Amino acid sequence: MMSKTTPNLTDLRQSVADFYEKRGADFARTRLGHWSGFNLIKPFLQSGKLVVDVGAGNGRLAAYLPEDVPYLGIEPSLSYRETALHETLLIPGGLPELPIHDEISYTTCCFAVFQHIPPEDLERCRDELMRITAPGGYLIVTSWLPSFEDMVPVDGRTGSERWIPWKAGEEIDMRYVHCPTLETWNQLWTMGGHEIIQSGYIEEQGWTEIKEHARNLCVILKKN
Fold first, then answer.
1. Which burial class, exposed, middle or buried, applies to 73 when counting CB atoms under 10 A from its CB (0-12, 13-18, 19+)?
2. Quick one: which of 149, 187, 200, 207 has the fewest CB in 10 Å?
3. Alpha carbons 190 and 182: distance in angstroms, whole number
4. What is the pLDDT, as a whole number, of residue 177?
5. Where are the domains of the chain?
């Protein structure tokens, strides 16, 4: 959905929800295999300690975890949850209010979600991820770093917000994305109560200092 007038915050939130409800099954078919970003979490897993995957999609992360690491996926889109892989445990819910208790997660993952969050909601969503993460646990978050080709500015919003086309068959839908700079990304995660293990650009092979090679922004935190 792309508004012909300046969208308000509620419009933007709803546009993301509507896209993934409409296109969840189609999108899931493009998310069946291993993603190289999953390798980032391996050093931060512990036997018997829960991984919570926020914005889990079809739950494909679960297939790449050791058998002794329990998994819980949280996904707001019903159509996406219905494509769940490997009898994965997926429950309904999404940022900024997750339906689980405080400090329940040892390793909290949130992959490719933050690019769909309007700037006004980022700190609240960040704090919610920290809420569910246990002391001594880890938080790993990524956000797309798309090119601006074929992307349309969101009228009346910041220069970092765009509509990006997504095609299924002959029909094209527009998704809302927010594209922070590395500077604003790092600023978001500069708050008390945690240690930043690493923050920056990632490519297919891992961390990189070269923006042009990067596909995502990423941060890894340890909660005190």
1. buried
2. 149
3. 13
4. 94
5. 31-147+180-223
Q: For tokens 């109560």, name the residue.
A: 193
Element (H, E) at 122: helix 122-132
pTM of model > 0.90:
yes
Helix, strand, coil content of the chain in percent (nearest 5): 30, 30, 40
What integer pLDDT is reported at residue 192 of this predicted model? 86
- Read off the pLDDT band of 1 (50, 70, 90): very low
Q: Which one of 3.40.50.1820, 2.70.98.70, 3.30.470.10, 3.40.50.150 gives the CATH number of domain 31-147+180-223?
A: 3.40.50.150
How far is Cα 224 from Cα 221, in angstroms, rounded to an integer?
A: 9
SS3 20: helix
Give pLDDT tens digits for 69-119.
999 999 999 998 998 876 778 999 999 999 999 999 999 999 999 999 999
Tell how strand 71-74 and strand 90-91 pair up. Answer: parallel
Are 179 and 160 contacting, i.e. CB atoms less than 8 angstroms apart? yes
Q: How many residues does the structure list for the chain?
A: 224
Q: What is the spatial distance between Cα 68 and Cα 197, in angstroms, rounded to a whole number?
A: 25
Give the strand pairing for 71-74 and 51-54.
parallel
